[in-house]
Amino acid sequence: MKISSNLLASTILGIGLIASAATVHADARSDQYPASPITLVVPFSAGGGVDVVGRILAKSLSTELGASIVVENKPGASGMIGASYVAHAKPDGLTLLLASSGEVAINPHLYKDMNYSPEKDLAPISLVSRIPNLLSVNPQLPIKNVGELVAYAKAHPDTLSYSSSGVGNIQNITGELLNSMAGIHILHVPYKGSAQAVADVAGGQVSMTFASGAASLPFIESGKIRPIGVTSDKPMKAFPDVPPIKDTPELKDFLLVNWFGLFTTAGTPDSIVQKLNAATVKALANPEVVKALESQGADPAPMSPQAFADFRADQSKLFGQIIRDAHIAIK
Question: Is the dihedral angle over the CA atoms 44, 46, 51, 54 positive or is it negative?
Answer without folding.
Answer: positive
